[in-house]
Amino acid sequence: MSEIPIGSPPAPPGRHAAPQGWYPDPVDGSRERYWDGWSWSRNTRPSEAAGPAGRNVGGAYPGHPAGQQPGPYGGHGQGGFQQGGGFQQGGGFQQGGFPQGGYGRPGYGQQQPHPPIGPQSQIPVAATTADGMPLAGWGWRCLAAIIDLICYSILATVFALPIYLKVLPVISQYFAETVAAAQTGRQPPMLTPQDLAMSTTDQLLLTGIMIVVGMLYFGLFWRYLRATPGHLICGLRVVAVGPGADPERLGWQQALIRALVFIVPFAIGSYLLFFVVLNALMPLWNANRQAIHDIAAKTQLVKIK
């Protein structure tokens, strides 16, 4: 049977001062007692070298002087009660069992209590390269990609214009039949996707044009400028993994591998749509904010302005 009445002392109103876990027993310092986040439980165990959650190596606790152990109610001293307070033998409470001010709240002129045990909130630090240059954020990457894909699509359409022109007679005939039907009061014809479908040869030629134009567009810009027009507008630059301020240009292998992995799934279209989406979202959870084409080419995208 525990010497500590279950459910007492009550937790400070309006907050839990400590997360659930094993803490030094307020009654017997040679063992630990489980705090369920609201009250002491009956579960005890012998003290171990590894302390409870929130305790550092060597017995120190975050925000507490060396050699003093916090309890679930904050403060210093075994069990979290100030010296002169705590439990009486037999399960009662001594006067002053809580820090001055009641329930862990200091009175006027008293020092503020230390923060509760547990993971402390940390200010997020922006991801950087090995020499401290900031990596490009996901929003900037997306904006640059949209600009580049618009430019690339215009170029690819120009080169693929002879293939698209093959569909023009079908569209012209459809409009002529529609006008004639309207003049005679007949039902207008239907234009189905099959009417506009390209032959297998034309589809392969179109895919090949898109891949070649994409390799030239992205590969040449990354090789010689380390940035595409979209990157230049957004203040981004492609560098090899390592120092972000490295003045060396990308090698042909890095530039072409990066372009190949980036543009081929996009050119093929619906067959690799999942890969395109995954590649676009990967910088959100990658520690170095790299997409799949960055990992393949061992590159990273930095923000230079």
List keywords for this structure.
single chain, mainly alpha, 36% helix, two-stranded antiparallel sheet, 305 residues
Parts with pLDDT < 50 across at least 5 consecutive residues: 10-15, 49-125
Helix content: 25-40%
How many alpha or pi helices?
9
Largest sheet: number of strands, sense, barrel closure? 3 strands, antiparallel
Question: Hey, roughly how much beta strand do the residues contain?
Answer: 5-15%
Strand order of the largest sheet: 1-2-3
Globally, the shape reads elongated
Global Rg: 34 Å
Mean pLDDT: 75
Order of helices and strands: EEEHHHHHHEHHHE
Task: Output the structural class.
Answer: mainly alpha
Distance between the termini: 67 Å
> How many structural domains?
2
Q: Count the beta strands.
A: 5
Write the layout of secondary structure elements.
Blueprint: E1 21-24, E2 31-35, E3 40-46, H1 138-159, H2 161-165, H3 168-184, H4 193-196, H5 200-224, H6 229-234, E4 236-240, H7 252-268, H8 273-281, H9 292-297, E5 299-303
Antiparallel strand pairs: 1-2, 2-3, 4-5
Helix pairs in contact: 1-5, 5-7
Quickly describe the structure:
By secondary structure, the protein is mostly helical.
Description:
The chain has helices spanning 138-159, 161-165, 168-184, 193-196, 200-224, 229-234, 252-268, 273-281, 292-297; strands at residues 21-24, 31-35, 40-46, 236-240, 299-303. It is mainly alpha-helical and 305 residues long. A 3-stranded antiparallel sheet has the order 1-2-3, with no helix packed on it. Helix 1 (138-159) packs across helix 5. The two termini are 67 Å apart. The model is unreliable at 10-15 and 49-125 (pLDDT under 50).
